[in-house]
């Protein structure tokens, strides 16, 4: 069964842990000096917060976490059907977890990841070069989501 994933950048980790613990009625399942995660069943979500980049506040990226290689192959097929550029990161370490993952951005630059967690890590991890996902609306401040160059100015509105 798939699990929805949301990663939010926060300014004050302790205050945010207190807030979200109250909101969810549960303590985080993972807590680090710069990161916390709730693996909730109701709603079924992997909700993470971090203060890796003090400038990055708000939703950093969203995604789908799967429980098996078969589900991951299914979701990877959906990424291909979405017709956007896909970054196939493969085996990686991110957010204190070892995962197999790929990334895609929607037409407005919202970054999505599809991943299978395969174990824990003692380090936060690194991000690959996600420039191929860049769009005029993509964020350049997300933690383990694509770091993209600022888009060139466009003429006109909207």
UniProtKB/TrEMBL annotation:
VOC domain location: 2-117
SUPFAM superfamilies attached to this UniProt entry: Glyoxalase/Bleomycin resistance protein/Dihydroxybiphenyl dioxygenase
Keyword DNA-binding appears in the UniProt entry: no
Cited PROSITE patterns: VOC (PS51819)
Coiled coil: none
Record Pfam families: Glyoxalase (PF00903)
GO biological process, one term: response to cadmium ion
The organism's place on the tree of life at top rank: Bacteria
MF GO annotations: dioxygenase activity
Keywords: Dioxygenase, Oxidoreductase
NCBIfam families: ArsI_CadI_VOC
Protein name (database record): Glyoxalase/bleomycin resistance protein/dioxygenase
Species annotation: Novosphingobium subterraneum
């Amino acid at each position: 069964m798939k699990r929805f994933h949301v990663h939010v950048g926060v300014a004050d980790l302790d205050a945010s842990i207190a807030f979200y613990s109250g909101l969810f009625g549960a303590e985080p399942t993972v807590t680090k000096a710069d990161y916390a995660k709730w693996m909730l069943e109701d709603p079924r979500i992997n909700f993470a917060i971090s203060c890796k980049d003090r400038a990055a506040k708000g939703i950093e990226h969203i995604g789908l976490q799967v429980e098996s290689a078969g589900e991951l192959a299914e979701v990877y097929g959906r990424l291909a059907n979405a017709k956007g550029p896909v970054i196939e990161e493969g085996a990686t370490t991110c957010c204190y977890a070892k995962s197999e993952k790929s990334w895609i951005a929607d037409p407005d630059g919202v970054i999505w990841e599809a991943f299978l967690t395969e174990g824990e890590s003692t380090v936060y991890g690194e991000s690959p070069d996600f420039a191929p996902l860049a769009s005029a609306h993509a964020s350049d401040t997300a933690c383990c989501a694509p770091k993209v160059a600022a888009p060139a100015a466009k003429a006109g509105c909207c």
